[in-house]
Amino acid sequence: MARTVCDLKVELKRKGIKGISGLNKAGLEKLLAEGKPKSKPTKKEDLKKKSESFERKKPKSVKKPAPKEKPILRIENIERPKEKPVKPKKETKAQKRSRLKKLEKENIRLTNLKTNLQALEKDAGATPAEKIQAKKQLDKVDTKIQELKKDIEKLKLEI
């Protein structure tokens, strides 16, 4: 009676023999007759044998230094990088003219605000709190206008 490959595989499985995949009919018959597949050493076994034959010398144990205590995290303990002084870039004449125009526009805006605040201060329909607030704002605007005029004069001299 001729056995098929399938019959041979079933019989090998019943006996618990592994490693039947990839074998042809003759290989399956031979495996069934011998009872065990030829075991090939695995990579782990190869590595064990090699490591046993080439025993490495263990390095001498080095004592680790005691761990340093970490300082408490405070603003004083943080090291900040030293800041390099920033050299001001020289402005070209075109840049100075542009900055001068911006300052003059700001001056015009503040003078308009000043006239509006003066009108509010003299307005009969304004409440006393509004008049006080207008007076405070007027003082701030006056100082800003004085600073702007100084800056404008300096720029005009440079150009």
Give a nutshell description of this structure.
This protein is an all-alpha fold.
Structure, described:
This protein is mainly alpha-helical and 159 residues long. The protein is 58% helix and 0% strand. It contains 5 helices and no strands. It has helices at 5-15, 25-34, 43-53, 93-122, 128-158. The longest helix is centred in the last third of the chain and has 31 residues, at 128-158. The mean pLDDT is 79.
Structural class of the helix and strand makeup? mainly alpha
Largest sheet at a glance?
Answer: none
- Average of per-residue pLDDT values: 79
Unreliable stretches covering 5 or more consecutive residues: none
Number of strands: 0
Helix percentage range = 55-70%
Q: How far apart, in Å, are the first and last alpha carbons?
A: 116 Å
SSE order in H/E notation? HHHHH
Residues in β-strands, percent: under 5%
Task: Give Rg in angstroms.
Answer: 48 Å
Q: What is the tally of helical segments?
A: 5
Cα shape: elongated
